[in-house]
From TrEMBL:
<dbReference type="InterPro" id="IPR004839">
    <property type="entry name" value="Aminotransferase_I/II_large"/>
</dbReference>
<dbReference type="InterPro" id="IPR015424">
    <property type="entry name" value="PyrdxlP-dep_Trfase"/>
</dbReference>
<dbReference type="InterPro" id="IPR015421">
    <property type="entry name" value="PyrdxlP-dep_Trfase_major"/>
</dbReference>
<dbReference type="GO" id="GO:0030170">
    <property type="term" value="F:pyridoxal phosphate binding"/>
</dbReference>
<keyword id="KW-0032">Aminotransferase</keyword>
<protein>
    <submittedName>
        <fullName>Succinyldiaminopimelate transaminase</fullName>
        <ecNumber>2.6.1.17</ecNumber>
    </submittedName>
</protein>
<dbReference type="InterPro" id="IPR019878">
    <property type="entry name" value="DapC_beta/gammaproteobac"/>
</dbReference>
<dbReference type="InterPro" id="IPR015422">
    <property type="entry name" value="PyrdxlP-dep_Trfase_small"/>
</dbReference>
<dbReference type="GO" id="GO:0009089">
    <property type="term" value="P:lysine biosynthetic process via diaminopimelate"/>
</dbReference>
<dbReference type="InterPro" id="IPR050881">
    <property type="entry name" value="LL-DAP_aminotransferase"/>
</dbReference>
<dbReference type="Pfam" id="PF00155">
    <property type="entry name" value="Aminotran_1_2"/>
</dbReference>
<dbReference type="GO" id="GO:0009016">
    <property type="term" value="F:succinyldiaminopimelate transaminase activity"/>
</dbReference>
<feature type="domain" description="Aminotransferase class I/classII large">
    <location>
        <begin position="32"/>
        <end position="394"/>
    </location>
</feature>
<keyword id="KW-0808">Transferase</keyword>
Length: 409
């Protein structure tokens, strides 16, 4: 077996299962999960209709580079969303089976373990992070290096502390903006710094933007392609952007997304995927075209999240260190303020006493540079309906107030 498999850690939800293994939740409360970031809003009817109308596509082998009409739809969406010139559908865009699959396989395609002799290449990751980045690094024969979140930057990763010796070994940098779990969005200055580093040290940036369409202000989050265009980076050198319909259109089961950017990288990634077997079903492609061509359902979806966050955040601010994020559908809350309790203890007690599931922040990060930047924080995914999320918030308030009363007696 591949010895790098031994380096993989249990996924956060497996750790959560173990954390709760000896607990019986209070039966007086119905279960509410804020743990898993799985969209719960209804799938738009237009996507269902397009899928059903194209079920005959199941009788055909799909091509790896996908239908031209899908690539054109994605190119049009990118141009409209990010106010950039249209990308070439034939050379700069590739449909993928969800961004998760492509985030993993991209590392397998681009990491060159022979480039620096016996020196192990580096894959740079934010910390906390989406665990696929770490697994992709290990199984590509690389070593992950974690750039810790900086609370002063709204928990965006702080790349300024990375030593030059690490940059010299870096071949791939994963960036998640809007971030999971923090909701942080990189600024144009952040992107300018990263592009300069990529040019200087010759590495590829993989920009994970699957949460780009869930935001709470009037201005959409800045994307990597629009940042590159604004900075005059014609052709998007060393940049691959990844996005998905899962969160935008509430279709996580469709496994539909795309990669876009540097045509030279796309060309080699397409070659890899031809052997990897990453082609998307023609039926799913047809439904995806319908989804990318429609913005009304996206605006309606975003409005539902805005309503939830506007109601839930003030309630939780009464007892937790939490603010409205830049974007995405998570609240990243501190739990140790005046409570003298860890994130894992908090999650156990909340589950046991009030049957509410949250994810300990330490499960989403690694000990790096002397700290685990997720410790004593929790991630709450506000993916359920408004009433259920409000009920969960009220139970959390009751739980924290109970802890506070114990400390004063």
């Amino acid at each position: 077996m591949n010895p790098n498999l031994e380096k993989l850690q249990a996924y956060p939800f497996e750790k959560l299962k173990r954390l709760f293994a000896d607990l019986t939740p209070n039966a007086a409360f119905s279960p509410i999960s804020l743990g898993l970031g799985e969209p719960k809003h209804a799938t738009p009817q237009l996507i269902k209709d397009a899928l059903i109308a194209n079920l005959n596509g199941l009788a055909n082998y799909p091509s790896t580079n996908g239908l031209e009409s899908l690539r054109v739809a994605i190119s049009r969406w990118l141009a409209n969303r990010y106010t950039i010139p249209a990308l070439d559908p034939s050379t700069q865009i590739l449909p993928v089976n969800g961004s998760r699959e492509a985030l993993f396989s991209l590392a397998q395609a681009v990491i060159d373990t022979s480039k620096q002799g016996d020196i192990t290449p580096i894959v740079m990751c934010p910390n906390p992070f989406y665990q696929i980045y770490e697994g992709a690094a290990y199984l590509a024969g690389a070593q992950p290096y974690f750039a810790n979140a900086n609370p002063a930057k709204n928990f965006a990763p702080d790349f300024s502390q990375v030593p030059e010796s690490i940059w010299q070994r870096t071949q791939l940098l994963y960036v998640c903006s809007p971030g999971n779990p923090t909701g942080a969005v990189l600024t144009l200055e952040d992107w300018k710094e990263l592009f300069a580093l990529a040019d200087r040290y010759d590495f590829i940036i993989a920009a994970d933007e699957c949460y780009s369409e869930i935001y709470f202000g009037e201005t959409p989050p800045l994307g990597s392609l629009s940042a590159a265009n604004a900075l005059g980076r014609e052709g998007y050198p060393r940049l691959i952007t990844l996005s998905s319909l899962s969160k935008r259109s509430n279709v996580p089961g469709m496994r539909s997304g795309f990669v876009a950017g540097d045509a030279n990288i796309i060309k080699q990634f397409l070659l890899y995927r031809t052997y990897h077997g990453g082609a998307m079903s023609p039926s799913i492609q047809a439904a995806s075209i319908a989804a990318w061509n429609d913005e009304q359902h996206v605006a309606e979806n975003r409005a539902l999240y805005l309503k939830k966050f506007s109601q839930v955040t003030p309630v939780l601010q009464e007892v937790l260190d939490v603010t409205l994020p830049d974007a995405a559908f998570y609240l990243w809350a501190g739990v140790d303020k005046h409570l003298n309790i860890s994130d894992t203890e908090f999650a156990r007690g909340l589950y046991r006493d009030y049957n509410v599931t949250v994810l300990p922040g330490s499960f989403l990060a690694r000990e790096a540079h002397g700290i685990n930047p997720g410790r004593n924080r929790i991630r709450m995914a506000l993916v359920a309906e408004v009433d259920e999320c409000m009920e969960a918030a009220q139970r959390i308030v009751a739980y924290v107030k109970g802890l506070q009363s114990q400390l004063t007696t």
